[in-house]
Write a structure and sequence with these properties.
The structure is a single chain. This protein is α/β, with parallel strands linked by helices. It has a 7-stranded mixed β-sheet with strand order 4-3-2-5-6-9-7. The radius of gyration is 20 Å and the shape is elongated. It folds into 2 domains: 187 residues, Rossmann fold (3-Layer(aba) Sandwich); 62 residues, Helicase, Ruva Protein, domain 3 (Orthogonal Bundle), CATH 1.10.8.100.
């Protein structure tokens, strides 16, 4: 179990429940033949993804001991293991820039960063099925009006349909985490691009939620822009009360003022 202990410090907890691993694997569709698993560890989930017989399946693992374990126990992965950091990987180099789905029991300490990278590379990633810390999964899947609704909820929901699939108890991991986990699925919708400045949209969303206890009128002051044409009902609301379309509308107004 030395490998398990080592991975604990990387934020990874080994899934040991075969049924949960099977359910995660079965939650990924067959619509895309290219699949990448992030953080396979000792391959409990990997085994079931391999059984799906995807035409082009790769894994990426940052821990050298885990890579050696995978090479020794899953010979079918030969030449299909990336040794490196997903967050630093140029995804345009993967699968010859073709679309690919993502699956994994994601390390808790970088799970939000993984999702931000998915958002940035959404044109290449049509689907994600992943296990997260439960509160992260709930936050991503949250709707407007919910206190846990946040930055990732807004950004991802623009381009993905998000589904909370099921909750996972602590005892199915080794070592067991101190929190429950959950599996969610993200599937690309039909939105190809925003009809506003995307960079400004992200700034507006982040500014609103970075001071989420304040009204938008006060939270958006950090942008240093005039808010006089933003509807008063939006400015009096807090970020958690606004829909994705509301944030897009605010962005359009600020963009128009900038150009004018």
């Amino acid at each position: 179990m030395d490998l398990v202990k080592a991975k604990k410090y990387l934020g990874q907890h080994f899934l040991k429940d075969e049924n949960i691993a099977r359910r995660i694997s079965e939650s990924l569709s067959d619509s895309i033949g290219n699949v990448l698993e992030i953080g396979p560890g000792m391959g409990v989930l990997t085994k079931y993804v391999l059984q799906r017989n995807y035409p082009n399946f790769w894994v990426i693992e940052i821990d050298e001991e885990s890579v050696r374990y995978l090479e020794n126990h899953y010979p079918e992965l030969k030449n299909h293991i990336y040794f490196g950091d997903f967050l630093k990987l140029d995804l345009s180099q993967l699968f010859l820039a073709e679309k690919f789905s993502v699956i994994g029991n994601f390390p808790y300490n970088i799970s939000s960063q993984i999702l931000f990278k998915v958002f940035e590379n959404r044109k290449q990633i049509p689907e994600v099925v992943g296990m997260f810390q439960k509160e992260v999964a709930e936050r991503v899947a949250a709707k407007p009006g919910n206190k846990i609704y946040g930055i990732l909820s807004v950004l991802l929901s623009v381009f993905y349909d998000i589904e909370y699939l099921f909750t996972v108890d602590e005892h199915v991991f080794n070592p067991p985490p101190k929190v429950k986990s959950a599996v969610i699925r993200l599937v690309r919708n039909d939105v190809e691009a925003l009809d506003c400045d995307e960079a400004l949209f992200v700034q507006v969303v982040k500014a609103g939620f970075n001071q989420r206890r304040k009204t938008l009128r006060n939270a958006l002051k950090a942008l240093g822009r005039s808010l006089e044409n933003v509807p008063d009902n939006m400015l009096q609301a807090r970020a958690e009360q606004l829909s994705t379309n509301d944030f897009i509308e605010i962005t359009k107004i600020l963009e128009k003022e900038q150009k004018g």
